[in-house]
Amino acid sequence: MNQSSNDLFEMIDNYIDHEGSADQFEQLQARLAQDSEHVSQFVRQVFLHQQLRELLVAERLATALEVVRHPRSSSVDSGISADGFFWTPVKRVAEALPLVTIARATVLCVLVFYAVKGAFGPGIYSSGYVTPATSPAQGPQASVAVDTPARFSATLTPISYCVFDPSSAPVSAGRQAPLRPGQAISLIEGVAKIDASQPLGGRGSFVLEGPLSLFLDAEGMPSLQHGKLYARFKCDRDRFRIDTPLGKILVSWNTELGILATADEVAVHIFSGAASFEPILVISGDPQRRELYRVSSGEMLKLKAASDENIEIERGPAVEDAFVTNISMSAYHLTIMPEYVQAVRKASPDAYWRFESAQNGFVPNEMSDRYRCHIEGSVGWHNYPGNRTVEFGAFDKGGCLVSTDTFPPVSEYTVEAWIKPSHFHLGTILTFVDHAVKRNKHGLLLELCGPALIRDYTASSKNYHPGRIRFLHRSDVGKLHSGVSTFSRQPYKLRQWQYVVGVKDKTRLRLYVDGNQVSSSKDSRPLAEGLSVIIGQLQPPSTSVFASSRSFLGEIDEVAWYPHALSEEEIRKHFELVNP
Asked: Which of 55, 204, 206, 462 qualifies as a FRET site for 503, CA 20 to 30 Å off?
């Protein structure tokens, strides 16, 4: 290795360790901009440094020392050779980037490292085991159990129906899964929660909203690559850190915050407590200057990487409506006047659930002793002036309301509800199911579609309807892809009250939102026989796990079912009598 290479190696090493002078930092910037070979070495050196960190955490010192002593010939347990098939494409990528600066090279390095981890399996940690890929030189290797230092504990729990990338941390639907350092979580759709604890008693609760990608670093701290995250911390002696693409968020004491992150922009909203933001070295400029940006309660700090490699900083008020917090969910009240209740009763529903009271675990039907709903699992109650609503998703376990009394097989009917969803998610407002049979035996369904993946599951259409409201009527409950659906044209609103009505007359389905008809479909078949109601979930608890059953997240109120079709005038009147 010549002197020039030694100098470059030392400059990169100083950069990794946050050491060196401002002159060295500028020289490194210049050398990366001049030669793609230098970029390749930069990516390689930072990559090996990251491997070394993880190997040391796993207490596999012999392999770690091998990487240090022979960095150009060692093959680590992931099966990635330091030369050959891995570094050839890296070198090609580096050569294809003109005038690459440290910022771009660092991003390239991070992307390469975690792409490789995903491509060759869960990585060094996967449910407590190392599972190396086959090394071209050594052949298959056995899995080795790893005992990580007891620095922290963390569990992942789906709150709604979730879709995870198969290469990320595995979790069974509706069940908690322990997390280990080095695990990646790629949440494509849905809402999940991480509960973490620190050695000195500090606790953090992270609500993840897909699409989101993060991983746990060697110390178990979350590193958010992109997506939306809401967190609450309780810590007196511990300190939590959240890494983002543009820097670190440092949290002490009791703090409530929200983060929106992309590759080149990070916004931190502080709802209570305080936090500090430490930009990454390549953005803060001077390697000797580690500036902290303080963010206090009620404030927002936004950092954006500009095209000239500088950073733009914007401050403003924290926006709770962008996240699911107690204040954002309480911002819109639902006021139910006596005139509304009288109008519903006058329209003669068979069932009318107001959720004003619950006795011995049952929610009464305001119209008769039939169709009272039993509380299954855990639900919450939200009290407004003069009104109370039922809240789903407030507890990890989940819950729903179930009645086993069956409804008549009528050819016309109406179902109505006031809803306030907390997230875009696949969630059931109300469904009629046959309790005598198992899964997917529902004949009426009013539900929310998720943000991306939910299709129209009829035989005639496979179109996507992201973020819409779905009304399904299915006479043959034994055939999953039968029935007719109609969808709202506009997305439903988050954390705001909406009035949703599904009407089935003798020939058509009609869907109304806030008093206006938004869609319709043809269907002349009657409601199936032997169906009973579930509110807040698709399947009855006896046949499913709560979070895998398209659970509703948010609040529901004033649910009614009529054995006849309401007129447009009646629907519009009901909407106008309420001030959400």
From this structure: 462
